[in-house]
Amino acid sequence: MRIISGERRGAKLLTPKGTYTRPTRGRVKEALFNILSGHQFINIITRRIVIDAFAGSGALGLEALSRGAALSIFIENDQNALKTLEQNIRKLDYHHRARIIRADACTIDIPATEEAGLVIMDPPYKLDLAYPCMEALEKGGWIGNETILILEHGSTKEPDHPSWLECFKIQKYGVTRLFFYRKKGRI
């Protein structure tokens, strides 16, 4: 696994040992960030906070940092993944622009200092964790009117989500789907 673009382009990333963590496939990650670099999502990453929930190796949040995010916040509670995440942050020298929150993304209760521009969630496909994660981040003040939430999921149907969100885009890559959400009624 590598960083695809930006200031750390080509840098290799470590992946966690074990079967609990499933890294985002390179093709899906590349497609996601190609979409995010398009006109519809201008300024959603650059100089903004990006949250990488269920972070694993941190590949998605580290890609955002390489592409100009001001800060990536990594939420992870698996010890093997945390160790790998810390190594990847050190290896890419992003310790000054990365914050690790050792917590369950579904029950996180740390208040935001600023709304995120982008929230990327990549929970285990077989567990229905997106809804409680979205609710916890909203309760903490991380999700604003301009925040885009992206859920990577293996479902053929749209996963449950809070009523205050709308799904406005779905992209399919093999068995993987990317669901794009934003707050309803945003200006």
CATH topology: Rossmann fold
Question: What do the pLDDT scores average to?
Answer: 90
Spell the H/E element sequence.
HEHEHEEHEEE
Residue windows where pLDDT falls under 50 for at least 5 positions: none
Quote the beta fraction. 25-35%
General form:
globular
Binned, the helix content reads 10-25%
Largest sheet: 7 strands, mixed
Helix vs. strand class: alpha/beta
Distinct helical segment count: 4
Strand tally is 7
Please provide a written account of the structure.
By secondary structure, the protein is of the alpha/beta class. It has a single domain, classed as Vaccinia Virus protein VP39 (Rossmann fold, 3-Layer(aba) Sandwich). It is 22% helix and 27% strand. It has 4 helices and 7 strands. It has helices at residues 26-36, 59-66, 79-91, 130-139; strands at residues 49-53, 71-76, 98-102, 116-121, 143-153, 165-173, 176-183. It has a 7-stranded mixed beta sheet, sandwiched between helices. Helix 4 (130-139) links the parallel strand 4 (116-121) and strand 5 (143-153). The longest helix has 13 residues, at 79-91. The protein is globular. The N and C termini lie far apart (38 Å). The model has no long low-confidence stretch (mean pLDDT 90).
